[in-house]
Amino acid sequence: MYKKCSGGFLLVEALFALALLWTAAVVLLPLYMQITLERNNLVLEEKAHRLLTIALYEEPLVGETAVADGRTVFRLQARNEGGQMWKVCVRWNDYVGREVERCGYGKR
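== Competence protein ComG ==
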């Protein structure tokens, strides 16, 4: 005799779907973490750019100065390049551990 199928999921189908979800999570989670770190590093770079602009054009800076912002320390260094031309560099360690440096030139 023929039995009518109830149309429910089989255990194998449910396990297969769960395995696909776990595989997607294992692949995408490290990628998401990397994107989050790089987004935070871009925020640090924007803060460093603002500090560099302030040091170049608004605030007189001589020698080396440290500016703490949260857990990041920005080190600003100014040097006279002759006449009114100044070179200001800002250094910091990003969230990955790399040391980053940005420099700018300006007249005072």
